[in-house]
Amino acid sequence: MVVIDLLAVETVLFIICLLLSGFFSSSEVALISITRAKVRALLNQGRKGAEALDELKRSTDSILITILIGNNVVNVAAASLATAIAIGLYGDLGIGIATGVTVILMLIFGEIGPKMYASRHTERLALAVARPILFLSRLISPLLWVSERIQRHLSSSTSTTEPVVTEEELKEWIDVGEEEGTIEEEERDMLYSVLRFGDTTVREVMTPRVDVVMIEDTATIENALSIFNETGFSRLPVYHGHIDNVVGLLNVKDVFSAVFRQQAGATIRDLMYEPYFVPESKKIDDLLKDLQMKKQHMAVVLDEYGSFAGIVTVEDMLEELVGEIMDEFDEEEPEIQQIEGGVYLVDARAWVERINEDLELNLPLMDTYESIGGLVIERLGHIPRRGEVVRIEESNVTLVVMQMRGRRIVKVKLIIEPRVVREGGGEEPKG
């Protein structure tokens, strides 16, 4: 009778050890898998167990050591109890039986089953096990202290800790969020823009020198008003002698104020203010902070040799985040406008590849250019003048420079020559 009672106790203890093994295995998956961001969200929601979970996640090593010690203790105890039960039932033959049965039961109920459950119910399980695991970690705190000292001794003093979340992982999470419908396509694009923002240089967003509208410091107030009226700009760089020598910035409000107050003797030099110079290599996130502190809207960009390279505005930088910002002076025009049959007015910045696709042409593609304006310059070999013509023989296309802004081509007329069929077959250009 005593033997039966002892066997029953051992069986009960074995089952308890098996359950504890499953508890520790599932706790490991749940506590390691849940992210710090998720823990913070649960903490803000006031979920039960979130505070204990937050404390545990501050030290992943403590979680692992606590679970490892607990799991090893219950696994050894389970193996010992299984062996004792088997020997009590089958004698010495029971040792082999106990080993096989214990391995199978531990795999199913102590490892595979609990870990699969934990992977599917991570949040709920992490909250449930956080307090018991935290209590256990405090019980074995002396062991954790010893382990920490050993780890510090063995680890290299120069080793660096990897970031918890990398930029690439954030991008993956954004893509997953879009796939699952929690993030819209526009939100994804903006989030990507935010991640790229800190890596973008001034050179990538500035208005290049050839496209900058400027005014000389010897110009009259009437000249300035005329330029402001034609362009719709609110600020103009001011140069002295030559355009590389930028000496100030002129605000349209200051000009109108001088006119309103009838300051007859006012000059451009009197009204302009000191510009803020920045190198091309400066990051735009740093520049945006600088302009906010200085309460300025525009900066003058210098190249590596100190020469004038262009200008950059707050609007240029914000467009990297939200896309192009149109105001009442901006007129959005299509890149390709049909004037008449076979004749098109094309934005010089339009890609040749897109023109070929939209108009079913075969304009030549080269690595030295991408835009139709670049093709014109490539064929001419110089900066063109308004009205210059380029004949693309192989494509049966004629290009005419229609509008220039400084040294930059703005508009190009594209004429597709009609083809006629030869008498003997084949085609030839008409005319």
Note down, in words, how this protein is organized.
- The protein is 54% helix and 17% strand.
- It is an alpha+beta fold and 431 residues long.
- The strands form four sheets. The chain has a five-stranded antiparallel β-sheet, covered by helices on one side. It has a four-stranded mixed β-sheet with strand order 1-7-6-5. A three-stranded mixed β-sheet has the order 2-3-4.
- α1 packs antiparallel against α4 (60-90).
Write a brief structural summary.
54% of the residues lie in helices and 17% in strands. The chain has helices at 2-33, 36-45, 50-57, 60-90, 94-120, 122-139, 141-154, 167-179, 185-197, 202-205, 221-231, 252-260, 268-271, 284-294, 314-322, 352-359, 372-380; strands spanning 207-208, 215-216, 235-240, 242-251, 277-279, 298-302, 308-313, 336-340, 343-347, 389-392, 397-405, 408-416, 419-421, 427-429. 23% of the residues are buried.
Topology readout:
Layout: H1 2-33, H2 36-45, H3 50-57, H4 60-90, H5 94-120, H6 122-139, H7 141-154, H8 167-179, H9 185-197, H10 202-205, E1 207-208, E2 215-216, H11 221-231, E3 235-240, E4 242-251, H12 252-260, H13 268-271, E5 277-279, H14 284-294, E6 298-302, E7 308-313, H15 314-322, E8 336-340, E9 343-347, H16 352-359, H17 372-380, E10 389-392, E11 397-405, E12 408-416, E13 419-421, E14 427-429
Parallel strand pairs: 2-3, 5-6
Antiparallel strand pairs: 1-7, 3-4, 6-7, 8-9, 9-12, 10-11, 11-12, 13-14
Helix pairs in contact: 1-4, 1-5, 1-6, 2-3, 3-6, 4-5, 4-6, 8-9, 11-12
